[in-house]
Design goal:
- Helix content is 65%, strand content 8%.
- By secondary structure, it is mainly alpha-helical.
- Strands 1-3-2 form a 3-stranded antiparallel sheet.
- The chain is elongated.
- The model has no long low-confidence stretch (mean pLDDT 93).
């Protein structure tokens, strides 16, 4: 699995793209200036880095995603569980629930998900 990491400001910039795609790169830099107080050069530098990471593409000045926001979040979650809990979802859930109780609705949702994604 390809390791992808982005910082908080890159994530905010990515959100601008996901919320507005397809978006012209010039319009993207204007929105980044408004939302993040970035100069045009900063926007284009960050866009290039995110494209190099395979998250977005910039074809002739039109910026679109290569992966949806949900796909990106799923990948980041897998990377976190792999790196922190040696890939063990039960170990992750044990750590998560050691400080926070699950509601009845959350437990039922998890049961449905396990049933839906079970290999057996």
């Amino acid at each position: 699995m390809k390791e992808i990491s982005i910082g908080e400001l890159e994530a905010r910039f990515a959100d601008i793209i996901w919320e507005n795609e397809p978006i012209r790169s010039g319009e993207l830099s204007k929105r980044a200036e408004e939302a993040l107080n970035w100069k045009k050069t900063t926007s284009f530098t960050v866009l290039r880095r995110l494209c190099d990471k395979g998250i977005f593409r910039n074809d002739s000045g039109i910026v679109t995603s290569r992966m949806s926001k949900d796909e990106f979040k799923a990948l980041r979650t897998e990377q976190f569980i792999d790196g922190t809990f040696e890939g063990s979802l039960p170990a992750f859930l044990a750590a998560f629930t050691s400080r926070k109780s699950l509601s009845r609705e959350e437990v039922e949702e998890l049961r449905r998900m396990v049933e839906e994604h079970s290999e057996v």
